[in-house]
Amino acid sequence: MAQPFNTFQAGTAAVPATQVEISVSCRKLRDMDILSKSDPMCVLFTYDLRANTYYEFARTEVIQDNLNPNFVKKFVMNYFFEESQKLKFEVYDVDSQSSHLDKHEEVSLHFRATHLDKKDFFGKSDPYLVFYRANEDNSYTIVHKTEVIKNTLNPTWKPFTIHARALCNGDYDRSIRVECYDWDSDGGHDLIGEFTTNLRELSRGAGSNNQFPVIHPKKKQKKKKYKNSGEVILLECGIHQQHTFLDYIQSGTEMNFTVAVDFTASNGNPSSPTSLHYLNPYGTPNSYAAAIQAVGEIIQDYDSDKLFPALGFGARMSDGSVHHEFAMNFNPSNPYCQGISGVLQAYYNSLQKVQLYGPTNFAPVINHVARFAQAMPNGTNYFVLLIITDGVITDMPQTCQAIVNASRLPMSIIIVGVGDADFTAMNILDGDDVRVSANGQYAERDIVQFVPFSDFVNRGTSQMSQAALAKEVLAEIPEQFLSYMKKHNIKPKIQANAPPS
């Protein structure tokens, strides 16, 4: 049942949304247990359009021994009138040996084949494998394709890694069909043969149980003496638990959020309404304040002490010196501000004490945060630097080098571009397409996310604009965070110390 928000306040703006309560019941569920009935639980997933994937929203309670459960726990969520919100419901038997809901598993597989059929007239074959997951309606969905190995009947394919959810929906007993093809340049690839297995069998590793005769159905039907069209052999199968971002946060890893603000003259005089640093007498936040507030209000919840270093760069002080890394509270030995409100207060105070100058150098503030990250490489802390800027970088070589160095550390960089400047250089730093490099060295990880603030200025109310901005700039942080932990084999403390299951 929908319950409208009771938050009317004259003279303000509110996101047009309604709170919705979703009740779930199931009927005639499949019995997954041998000696008792299933113990079902329902999980609700919401769709993220940008990431093109579903993320878990919430779970119901577990109901023991029941194929027709009426779940007591309700899913309460916001329904936004202006958005298309896709939902997915999955029901699990939580005590089933084939259900691994609490384990984010990754499967590593390595195969070779012997004595495959010769398909090419002038050569041998160009074999590759295609893997399919069985669905509930007896159809199959392709989940992986190996590389093609040219001109051989005895190929060894490269090892590959796939999530257990993709391979078999986390169900160890779900059928996996594997087809072996001979690649042809005209696209008419010829079937060599196929076989069926499941993750439970594969998990037993190399051995006689995982040597699969490759069968061509038509040949088997036509030829009485037909045995097979070769054999595919499992060389290795490894199953590894993949920890989530929340696993680390819940086990005590702290996010350390630092703000760096561009005080260069290209932003315009703060007293002018055209300035990106305009101090509006009526309290309307400028682009810098809006970006600080939007991103900070989300990330501050991951920081237990709510103390945030706030830095500025490109400003000239009263003594004539230019600073490319200064504490906005003017206390270099303790640049921490209490909460996001403290950061905003320091920012507004700085605007009245410094002269906007230049140039626009990023490397000093990146290296500043990197020094702290370098001192804590063991996964207890992760550092996020938010740089808000209006212009073209003037120390591009030094910035690239600083990013390459920082990519080895527990650190991510968010760049929010305000104004209408040419942000081509920022897209170079955002290594989604080409990894950042300096002096012949490439960044170990993609740690930079750039977002132009102007993309979010006119998205409905100011609240909606800030929410959209925060979602965009923080979207890559969990994956960047996990890439560091995985590369350095750092596991969540609680899970690392738990007894083996």
Automatic annotation (TrEMBL):
The UniProt entry, under InterPro entries, shows: C2_dom, C2_domain_sf, C2B_Copine, Copine, Copine_C, VWF_A, vWFA_dom_sf
Which Gene Ontology terms describe the biological processes this protein takes part in?
cellular response to calcium ion
The GO terms describing molecular function are: calcium-dependent phospholipid binding; metal ion binding
Q: Kindly give the PROSITE patterns that the UniProt entry links to this protein.
A: C2
Q: What is this protein called?
A: C2 domain-containing protein
Q: What does UniProt list as this organism's lineage?
A: Eukaryota, Metazoa, Spiralia, Lophotrochozoa, Mollusca
Domain C2: from-to ranges: 83-212
Q: Which family does it belong to?
A: Belongs to the copine family.
Name of a matching Pfam family: Copine
Provide this UniProt record's keywords sorted from A to Z: Calcium, Metal-binding, Repeat
Return the PANTHER family for the record. C2 DOMAIN-CONTAINING PROTEIN (PTHR10857:SF106), COPINE (PTHR10857)
Q: Which organism is it from?
A: Pinctada imbricata
Instruction: Give the GO cellular component terms, alphabetically.
Output: plasma membrane
